[in-house]
Amino acid sequence: MGNEAIGRGLVEEGCTLAAAYPGTPASEILSSVVAFAKETGAALHTEWSVNEKVACETALANSMAGRRSAVAMKQVGLNVAADPFTRATYLGVKGGFILIAADDPGPHSSQTEQDSRLFAHFAKAPVFDPSSPREAWEMVAEAFALSEKYEIPVMLRPTTRVCHARQNVFCRPPVPREQKACFEKNPGRWVATPQFLTELHRLLNGKLDRIAQEPAFNPVLAPGGVLPSPTPPRSLIRWGRRGGSTSTMSASPTRSTSRSSRRSGNTTRRSLSWRRRTP
Description:
The chain is an alpha/beta fold and 279 residues long. It has eleven helices and nine strands.
């Protein structure tokens, strides 16, 4: 299941804290993190928070101390977490931080059909937009890497059909990482008053400009689906991890992912949203 793939990716990539508030289509992510952490022996704190805002703030605090963190919720839960999430893009993070907002085009089990990519555009946060469970698993690693490189919160935005679709994913053991908790006191950043926000906003815009210039994330248009070079950027190809596999999750194929992609209107947004494309 796509949610299991996301949970596995978080464990493999050294996430040290995962918080969530339950709600379809995101509910199985945290329980999968718990299961895979026990299976692999990964040191990881998990919690169901009282609401999405508290879950987001808990994960952000861990990230501000330099440790990889993630928070998961459904798309309407992002409305509840709006205050800390939009603030976090200005303040930035230290350890990698991923906010997983599971959208529900349709909708199948939600009050609205809102598109979290537009929320991220408003908050000025990069978005990874998977079209399959395997891509969702792969993008966890890329999202953590991007978040740490630019010290910025990153959104991972699966949809219902990605969360609940099934696809083979070849897993690997968690990657050992040295993540010593160390909070650096800096009132001008972590509790910034309006006098600091103009400079923080300028720095945030600079981060987005530099992300937009990274070749791996630049969109490339090719007529008829033919790629212009034999070595296209990673944003255009489906790729897998190399190395030995330790287990396989869910062997049942499904065609619902492609229907979800068409239905949800997934697009590539410069400097904000990326999807891998295959020829």
